[in-house]
Design brief:
By secondary structure, the protein is of the alpha+beta class. About 25% of the residues lie in helices and about 30% in strands. It has nine helices and 17 strands. The strands form seven sheets. Strands 12-13-17-16 form a four-stranded mixed sheet. A hairpin with a 2-residue loop joins strand 14 and strand 15. The protein is elongated. This is Chaperone protein DnaJ. It is found in: Cytoplasm.
Length: about 375
C-alpha cells in the first residue's frame, strides 16, 4: 500500500506550497526528538513526506504514480535520514538539497539554527491595535478620528539610539557586531549548534559608548502619542486600518511596528447594511397601496421622495439608485432598497367596510 504523504502532513491534495511548508514546520516542531513532544519515528515520516510533496517535481511524480511512486525512483537523489539529521546537527548550514528544502530556513525558524546567515538586529518593534467606534453615518461617509495612546516610542533625548547625546555607538564585544551568538547543546542526537540573540546588545550588534541617562541606553521610553487617522468612506464593521511604522519602537537597530485600527460600527435602527446597499422599511396605508401616492423616505443623505404606484403589494421593494454606501474600492455607491408594508386596518368602521365591499365588487 502506498504512503499517503498528504495525510501525513495533514493537508489536502490541492494544498499550496506555502500550506505544505507551514504544515511541515508545525509537525517538525512538534515531533522533533529534542522536544518534550518529540517522536523520532513520526519525525522521520514527516520529513519523508515533505521531501516528496514539498518539491514540485517529486510532487508531480507522486501525484501521477501514487502507490507505485517508490518504484519509479522514489526520492531519487534526495536526502536520506542520516543526511537530514547530520544537517540539523550542523544547524542547517544553508543546505538546500535537490528536493528544494532549505534547512537553514526551516530549522532556523523552528529551533534557532543560524543556517550560515546573519540574523542579527532587532528587526522591528511590536505591532499594536486600538479600537475605534463609528456611527453608521461616519462609516458610510468617512471621518477623521483623533487617537491618543501610550506606547513604547523612541527616546526623546537620544532619538532612539540609546547613546547619550554627543556620544556614539560601538561594535558589541560579545557578538562582534553579529547581533547573535552561537551555542552548542548536547542532545540525544549529538551536539546541536544554534544561534541566540546576543543579550549584551539585544541583537543590535552595537552598544552605546555612553548610555543615555534618560532611557538607560534602551533607546525606548513609554510615552503618550497623539495622531489622526482618516477613516475611508464605505468602511465596514470589523475592518481594520494598518498604519505602517506607527506601532511600538523596538530599540536601537530596529524599526517601529505597525498600528492597526480596528473599526466597530454601531447599528442604526433605521438602516441595515448589506454589502454596499442599504435596506429600509416603510409603511403605507391601504388606500395608498391601491391608489398610489408619493411619500417621504428617510435616507442616509436626508429625506427623499418615493413614488408609490397604484396596486402596490405589501412587502414590495423599491430601489433608490446611488443612495447606498460608497464603494470602498472604486467609485460610485450602492443603492437603497425600500420595502413597503401595507397597513391594513384591524377594525374598520361600518362605512369603511361598505366602501371596501363596493371596491371589491368594482375590482371583480
Amino acid at each position: 500500500m502506498g504512503k499517503d504523504y498528504y495525510n501525513t502532513l495533514g493537508v489536502e491534495k490541492g494544498a499550496t506550497d506555502e500550506e505544505i511548508k507551514k504544515a511541515f514546520r508545525k509537525l517538525a516542531h512538534k515531533y522533533h526528538p529534542d522536544k518534550p513532544t518529540g517522536d523520532e519515528q513520526k519525525f522521520k515520516e514527516v520529513n519523508e513526506a515533505y521531501q516528496v510533496i514539498g518539491n514540485t517535481e517529486k510532487r508531480k511524480q507522486y501525484d501521477q504514480y501514487g502507490a507505485t511512486f517508490g518504484q519509479q525512483g522514489g526520492f531519487g537523489g534526495g536526502m536520506n535520514w542520516e543526511d537530514f539529521m547530520r544537517a540539523t546537527r550542523q544547524g542547517g548550514g544553508g543546505a538546500n538539497f535537490d528536493f528544494g528544502v532549505d534547512l537553514g530556513d526551516i530549522f532556523g525558524d523552528l529551533f534557532g539554527f543560524g543556517g550560515g546567515r546573519s540574523r542579527g538586529g532587532r528587526g522591528r518593534g511590536r505591532d499594536i491595535q486600538v479600537d475605534v467606534e463609528l456611527t453608521f453615518k461616519e462609516a458610510v461617509f468617512g471621518v477623521e478620528k483623533d487617537l491618543h495612546l501610550t506606547k513604547n516610542n523612541a527616546c526623546a533625548v537620544c532619538s532612539g539610539s540609546g547613546a547619550e547625546p554627543g556620544s556614539d555607538r560601538k561594535k558589541c564585544d560579545t557578538c562582534h557586531g553579529q547581533g547573535q551568538v552561537r551555542v552548542v547543546q548536547r542532545t540525544i542526537l549529538g551536539d546541536m549548534q544554534s544561534a541566540r540573540v546576543c543579550t549584551a546588545c539585544s541583537g543590535a550588534g552595537d552598544i552605546p559608548e555612553k548610555r543615555c541617562k534618560h532611557c538607560s541606553g534602551a533607546g525606548v521610553e513609554k510615552s503618550s502619542t497623539s495622531l489622526t487617522v482618516k477613516i475611508p468612506a464605505g468602511i465596514d464593521n470589523g475592518s481594520s486600518i494598518r498604519l505602517t511604522g506607527k506601532g511600538e519602537y523596538g530599540g536601537p537597530g530596529s524599526s517601529a511596528g505597525d498600528l492597526y485600527v480596528a473599526v466597530h460600527v454601531h447599528e442604526d435602527k433605521r438602516f441595515v447594511r448589506q454589502g454596499d446597499d442599504i435596506l429600509t422599511e416603510d409603511t403605507i396605508s391601504y388606500p395608498q397601496a391601491v391608489l398610489g401616492d408619493t411619500i417621504d423616505i428617510e435616507t442616509i443623505d436626508g429625506t427623499k421622495q418615493l413614488v408609490i404606484p397604484s396596486g402596490t403589494q405589501s412587502h414590495q421593494q423599491f430601489r433608490l439608485k446611488g443612495l447606498g454606501v460608497p464603494h470602498l474600492r472604486g467609485s460610485g455607491r450602492g443603492d437603497q432598497y425600500v420595502r413597503v408594508k401595507v397597513d391594513v386596518p384591524k377594525k374598520p368602521s361600518r362605512h369603511a367596510k361598505k366602501l371596501i365591499e363596493e371596491l371589491k365588487n368594482e375590482l371583480q
